[in-house]
Amino acid sequence: MKIAVFGAGHVGSALAARLVEREHHVTLVASDPGSPRLAAAAAASGAEIGTAVDAATVADHVVLAVPFAAIDDLLTDEVRDALAGKVVIDATNPLAPDFMSLTVGHTTSGGERVAERLPRSHVVKAFNTIFAATLGTPTLGGAAQLLPVAGDDPDAKRAVIDLGIQLGFDAIDAGPLSNARYLEPAVVLLLQLAYRQGLGTNIGLHLTRV
């Protein structure tokens, strides 16, 4: 499968590496195509480097792993046209500058804001609840990490769930895209536990079943 990952930061780089491991054809995209960080991320993951429009045009799926504040600048008219009809996996979180709270919530979500910008795409919220540090270790403490997947298009959501399972996560259907309103605050809880409570970033969510 051809997958474009927009963002060469911690999450984008780690996810690109996992996808390449599973033999997907991955293209990494960053705001500065010539940045050393992008080059290093591509070299480490085995992904190619591309531009947003070109990568989106040929990709089957596109992952948004940029800071939420960069979404408007990223989604130019050309990029939005290239993403028409595509499955777009929104892995962003609308975090405040201190990373300890959200700038959007309660009556909407970052995922819904992204969908508003991409009305011709199939936006699915996923991978935003997993720390970059544990994207490469889907099993923590003997249990697979929970990967909630929320979206309004059943086929797009199923495709992302299958991708999550392929990567080793306990990927589940988390309902409509509006449920991103609850998934995004879960990340803030993890951040609070990791940094203010001193648990570190090698933590994740797990769903127990009877």
TrEMBL record:
Keywords, in A-Z order: Oxidoreductase
Domain Pyrroline-5-carboxylate reductase catalytic N-terminal stretches: 2-94
SUPFAM superfamilies xrefs: NAD(P)-binding Rossmann-fold domains
Record carries keyword Oxidoreductase: yes
Domain of life the protein comes from: Bacteria
InterPro entries reported in the protein's UniProt record: NAD(P)-bd_dom_sf, P5C_Rdtase_cat_N, STEAP_metalloreductase
Statement: the UniProt record of this protein carries the keyword Metal-binding: no
Protein name as catalogued: NADPH-dependent F420 reductase
